[in-house]
Predict the 3D structure of the following.
Amino acid sequence: MSDETDKVLDSVIKSQAQNLELMEKLFAVAQPGAVYGEPVASGEYTVITASEILVAAGSGYGVGGGTGGETLEEETAVEGEEDEGTGFGGGGAGGGVSVGRPVATINIGPNGVQVQPVVDVTKIGLAFFTTIGAMLMMLSRMRRASGG
């Protein structure tokens, strides 16, 4: 292998190791302790909250190499020599973690265990108005398409 190829491979391995480290840190957040809150006891009742967690990650690399089928430019070419090379376009990764709002409460008491959802009125309202807007837009397009 050429020195250039060795450098490219070293860069790729280093980037992959860094990306793996990032992924491990992101997914370490998504542990049960992040989803379930500490139990709160009051008398015979205990309440535990459950929250939503979103972990997203992605990575990519650019590597190329090989021998070209065309000869080098006439000024720099040695007769019969072909263009050879490798390249590393770099690598990158990104990710994020969102430890969100509570989505349910787990209530433990003398009558057993009950799981009650936490209703987010804002999300429901946004979904409602988005749906109404989409329906009105589609009705408007249908009227224009039918000529009415």
Observations:
- The chain has two domains: 3-117, 119-148.
- Residues 119-148 form one domain.
